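Researcher: Here's the sequence for the chain we discussed earlier.
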Amino acid sequence: MLLATGLYRASHLTAGVTALVHDPAAGGVVRVLLGVALGTSLLLYGTGYAHGGFGPRLVWADVLLTGCLLPHAVLWASGGHVTDPGFWALLLGGSAAAAAAAGLETRQAGCAVVLILAAHVAAQLQTDTARPFGHLMSVLSSAVMARVFRWYLHRQGTLLDEAREQAVRAEAERARQAERMAHHRALHDTVLATLTTIASGRVDANTSGMRERCAREAAYLRRLIQRSEQAEAGDEKEGAEVPAGEALEDVVAAAECLGLTVTAQYHELPPLPGPVAAALTAAVTEALNNVRRHAGTSAAYLTAIGRGGGITVTVVDRGRGFDAEAALVGGRGTATGTGLRRSMHARMREIGGTTEVDSAPGEGTRVELRWPG
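Model: Thanks. This is the structure I predict for it:
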């Protein structure tokens, strides 16, 4: 509204400057009055732009000075001889009415427009024009259009605010859903794998290694429950780097607690960002879980190699193998399909990595995890 009514006022001031340029006989008082109108306009709109909106007191000052007094002062300085109802001093009444309609509340805006109209009626009665109503309708229509424009912008702003709030709520819901899925994958890779192994009777739940693993995963569950509160308090340090070798060693130790023998080799491993290390170790954990649960062998081979700041981790077994393509495409509902889709491919994709699975029935399985992809 500042921009629209400001441009409207500028057009009227331009008309005044043009009129005085083409009328060298115009008195000095008239030129001073045009300067007053220019100064009042700069004060009204300059202050408005600086504060992000019209100031009601300045709007009223503009109404009284520019809209009401200036036409009479120009008539007095011109000797009352104004033959054109579009004279620049009268034109300023239209932009004054527009500013009042844009910057004042409804009742005050109505009072201001009535004052301007009354002042202009009195001014035109002092001239020799016989057609005052065209100018008065111009002043009134300027106020009405400015008020309608203000209403429309307010309505559009309200709709935009509502749409933004809906988008924020939808994004928050997506974030909560993503967090729930991350928790589900984490539980699938850790606690569920441990419980499944214990329930199958393939390991002794009373060994010190199994008790240590259970204690570690109980602590992990507590961290999951507290993660939201920690994030709000700023306690999580996801940007911290994690030594890749140490993270993979924890995964290997956890797998060996479940009875899997892992032969691991590392070469020039770089430190990894926290989120990358978490996703990569989760994918490796699931690859080792799949060996223990589905390969029909108790041995696996893990190789991790650093490459240009990235890392490639390969997990190989010599078990029974499976149809990798069928597990990914048609294996929904199967343990292998779930592990491949959700715990390996999905996790690596989230951090910009890739997963390759090479397997065939009777020929073992090779899983390669790369970051960056």
